[in-house]
User: Which sequence fits this backbone?
C-alpha cells in the first residue's frame, strides 16, 4: 500500500483509519478546544460510531459553550425528537435553532426555517402562534433561498395573522420567488394571483405561463418518482 492511501476493500485498514479519525477529532475538540473539531467529533460519533448519547454531549457543549452554529442546529434536531438520551423539548429546540439562525454559517438557513415553523405552530409559546417571529425567521430563511420558507411566507401574507397584515403584493413577491425555486403550489398561487389581479396587475398571459410551470414541475416530480421506483 502506498503511504497515505487507504485500501477501502481492507476492513482492517478501514477500521484503523476511522479509529484514527476519532482520535484526531477528539484531540481537536478536547485538547485544542477547536469548535470545528468538536463539530467533526459529533458528526463522527453520530455517523460512524452511532453513539448518539456521546454525540449529544459534544453538541450540547459546543453549542452552549462555544456558540457553534452548526452544533446548535444539530442539537435542536436532537431536542425535537428526544434523540441521544435528551428529553424531547420543543422550547429548547427552538432556542437552539434561534441561536444557530442568529449565528449564521452552515445550517443557519435551515435553523431559521425550523425556528419559524415552531413559532408559527405555537407549541413553544404555550400553543399561541407567534406570527411575527414566524414571519421574521421565514424571511431570513427565504433570503437564503430556502424554498419552503418562501412559500410559507407567501401564504402568511395571503391569509394575514395577528401582527402580520394581509399583503397580497408581498404574497406575490414571495410566491414568485418560491415558484422560481421550484415549488409547485407557489407556481399555482402565482398563476391565480395573476389571473385575479391580486397583489399584481391582472395578466392572463402570465397566469397561463405559471399554470404551465406548475404542470411542468408536477410532471418532472412524477417522472423523478418513477425513476426512483425503477432504481429500487
Assistant:
Amino acid at each position: 500500500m502506498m503511504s497515505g492511501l487507504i485500501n477501502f476493500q481492507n476492513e482492517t485498514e478501514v477500521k484503523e483509519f476511522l479509529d484514527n479519525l476519532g482520535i484526531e477529532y477528539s484531540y481537536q475538540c478536547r485538547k485544542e478546544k477547536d469548535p470545528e473539531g468538536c463539530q467533526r467529533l459529533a458528526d463522527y460519533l453520530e455517523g460512524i460510531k452511532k453513539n448518539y448519547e456521546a454525540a449529544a454531549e459534544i453538541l450540547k457543549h459546543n453549542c452552549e459553550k462555544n456558540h457553534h452554529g452548526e452544533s446548535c442546529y444539530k442539537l435542536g434536531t436532537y431536542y425535537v425528537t428526544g434523540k441521544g438520551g435528551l428529553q424531547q423539548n420543543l422550547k429548547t429546540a427552538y432556542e437552539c435553532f434561534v441561536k444557530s439562525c442568529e449565528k449564521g454559517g452552515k445550517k443557519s438557513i435551515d435553523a431559521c426555517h425550523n425556528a419559524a415553523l415552531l413559532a408559527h405552530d405555537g407549541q413553544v409559546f404555550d400553543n399561541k402562534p407567534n406570527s411575527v417571529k414566524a414571519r421574521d425567521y421565514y424571511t431570513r430563511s427565504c433570503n437564503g433561498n430556502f424554498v419552503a420558507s418562501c412559500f410559507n411566507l407567501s401564504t402568511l401574507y395571503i391569509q394575514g395573522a395577528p401582527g402580520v397584515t394581509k399583503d397580497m403584493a408581498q404574497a406575490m413577491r414571495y410566491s414568485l420567488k418560491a415558484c422560481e425555486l421550484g415549488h409547485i403550489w407557489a407556481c399555482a398561487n402565482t398563476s391565480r394571483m395573476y389571473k385575479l389581479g391580486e397583489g399584481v396587475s391582472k395578466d392572463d398571459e402570465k397566469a397561463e405561463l405559471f399554470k404551465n410551470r406548475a404542470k411542468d414541475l408536477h410532471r418532472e416530480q412524477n417522472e423523478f418518482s418513477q425513476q426512483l421506483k425503477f432504481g429500487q
Notes: The CA atoms of residues 109 and 141 lie 5 Å apart.
